[in-house]
Each structure stands twice: as C-alpha cells, then as structure tokens.
C-alpha cells in the first residue's frame, strides 16, 4: 500500500512547474523586449549615420555655402560657393528639401563625395542628422518601460530623445 502524501507536499509539487514556467516566460519577455529595444536603437543610429558622417567628419571634405534657388520633387538646388581649400564652385548642387531648407536662403553645407549632393553643416546640420536617433530613443523608451519594466532607464532614454529633437527643432 502506498502511503498518502500530505496536502502541503502535493501543493508544493504542483507549484514547482508553475514557478519554472513563470521564470522561463519572464526570461523570454526580457530577451525579446531587450532585442527589440536594441534593434530600435541600432536602426536609429544607422538612419542617422548616413548623413551624420558627412557633417561630423568634415576633414578633407569640400565645404561651402549654397543659396537655394529652386525646390521641387523633394529636393532643392542652387549655386555652390566654396569655403574650404581645394573645393570647386558649382553651378548647381542638390540638398534634400525638408523643414530645414527654405527657398531664397543661404546655408553652410558639406559636399557628399562623388557627386553634387550636399548636406547642412554646423550645429544645425549635426542635430538634424541625428533626428532619427532621437525618434528611436523615444520608441525604445516605451519598450524598455513596458517590456523590460525599467522605468528609470526608460525615462532617461525618453529625456535624451526629447532633448535631441527639441534642440534640433530650435536650431534648425
């Protein structure tokens, strides 16, 4: 005859699989949300770096000014006047049409290598180049707060994103 187990032993043995499954699900949540947050930040840096590299690493690049004379089709164009040594004047360069560019104004720019495309330089150009990272910080902060339950880190990330976006808005 098999002796009967006390009720507390039965309850304890039934609780073990529940604790284990809760731990596995918790680890899965942290791993998944951590991966999503990191991917969002990597995407923000990737999107920003395409322009930021030209604005921040200006050594050896052509620098000058462009007076925007025409806008249409998502781009603006105008004559380029060189400022740096070795830079050549151009009749027409192309800059992306955005809130940071207006017809009739003159902007400091850096010429992208191998073409007539230019990007804004100076503090306004640097901040505008990193706007995608500011947006990624805001999105990742929601994931960190909700998925990882790290509210202090999330508030820090959100604050950094808002500061970057606000500074870009004010300078541009």
Describe the structure in your own words:
- The chain is of the alpha+beta class.
- Helix content is 55%, strand content 19%.
- The protein contains four helices and six strands; from the N terminus they run H-E-E-E-E-E-E-H-H-H.
- Strands 1-3-4-6-5 form a five-stranded mixed beta barrel.
- Helix 2 packs across helix 4.
- The termini are far apart.
- The mean pLDDT is 89.
Question: Can I get a quick summary?
Answer:
The protein is built from four helices and six strands, in the order αββββββααα. The chain is α+β, with helices and mostly antiparallel strands and 172 residues long. It has a five-stranded mixed barrel.
Brief descriptors of the model:
172 residues, alpha+beta, five-stranded mixed barrel, 55% helix, rod-shaped
Computed CA radius of gyration, to the nearest angstrom: 27 Å
For the sheet with most strands, the description reads: 5 strands, mixed, barrel
Please, what is the average pLDDT?
89
The helix fraction, in percent, is 55-70%
Strand content: 15-25%
Structural class comes to alpha+beta
Order of helices and strands: HEEEEEEHHH
Query: How would you write the strand order of the largest sheet?
Result: 1-3-4-6-5
Oligomer: single chain
Cα shape: rod-shaped
Number of strands: 6
Number of discrete helical segments: 4
Report the uncertain regions.
Answer: none
Distance between the termini: 85 Å
């Amino acid at each position: 005859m098999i002796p009967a187990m006390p009720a507390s032993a039965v309850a304890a043995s039934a609780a073990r699989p529940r604790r284990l499954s809760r731990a596995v699900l918790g680890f899965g949540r942290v791993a998944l949300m951590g991966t999503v947050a990191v991917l969002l930040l990597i995407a923000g840096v990737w999107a920003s770096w395409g322009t930021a590299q030209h604005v921040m690493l200006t050594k050896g690049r052509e620098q000058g000014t462009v007076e925007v004379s025409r806008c249409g089709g998502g781009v603006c164009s105008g004559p380029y006047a060189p400022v740096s040594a070795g830079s050549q004047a151009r009749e027409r360069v192309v800059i992306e049409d955005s809130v940071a560019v207006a017809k009739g104004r003159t902007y400091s720019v850096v010429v992208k290598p191998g073409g007539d495309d230019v990007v804004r330089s100076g503090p306004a150009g640097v901040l505008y180049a990193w706007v995608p990272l500011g947006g990624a910080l805001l999105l990742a902060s929601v994931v960190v707060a909700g998925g990882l339950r790290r509210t202090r880190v999330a508030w820090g990330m959100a604050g950094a994103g808002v500061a970057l976006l606000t500074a870009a808005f004010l300078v541009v």
